[in-house]
Amino acid sequence: MSKKVTPYQDSDLGKKEQVTQMFDNISGNYDGLNRVISFGIDVKWRKQVVAILKKKKPDFLLDIATGTGDLAINLVQTGAGKIVGLDISPGMLEVGKKKVLEKHLEQIIEMIEGDSENLPFDDNTFDAVTVAFGVRNFETLEKGLTEIRRVLKPTGTFVVLETSVPTKTPFKQGYYFYTKYILPRIGRLFSKDDSAYAYLSESASVFPHGEKFNNILRKIGFIDVVNKPQTFGVASIYVATK
Description:
The chain is built from nine helices and seven strands, in the order H-H-H-E-H-E-H-E-E-H-E-H-H-H-E-E. By secondary structure, it is α/β, with parallel strands linked by helices. Strands 3-2-1-4-5-7-6 form a seven-stranded mixed sheet, with helices on both faces. Helix 6 (about 140-150) links the parallel strand 4 and strand 5. Helix 7 packs antiparallel against helix 8 (about 195-205). The longest helix has 20 residues, at about 170-190. It starts with 14 loop residues before the first helix and ends with a strand.
């Protein structure tokens, strides 16, 4: 990133600890607020990720920054026999575990606490790894991506769903207005954490999206890297192979 953005500018904690604290704070209303903020379009984006991976027929999947488990639960539709959802926030995981139990998916989905930059798995473990709206929260982006490549099997697939910034008028101007003025206000209305949604907005605006992120993936050693802009470019799906 061209600028280091953290949730709590006056905190002495590192970004990783701040992100954990932030998601713990907003975990109780994260799902509902996300539907409001994205107008529900994030559901469609996750379905696109599932469709991409379904063609790969993966058996063992890892969903990093799984949060409350939305994508991990959706990934059951790929036919995978085992899915691990990993997140650094205990608060978000507690919500996710309840959802998994309610859907009777505990035999397929395991939710565990862990650090994306120090994954507790052996080399060449997973057929596919996903991250939805999480890579911009990595403290050290390249370290996290290197860990992901390590735990992927050879020819394994890496799929990232992340916010991006539209490049065409008038979507670019509308995006900036919405994320700068509207999104933080909605967040303050519904969340006890005033800083959280301001951070999520600002971190999205400075994240190296599009070809810049493609080049970072290639630098790490991924091949066949492509990105697929979604909904006028407000999000992108990146697909890469080990």
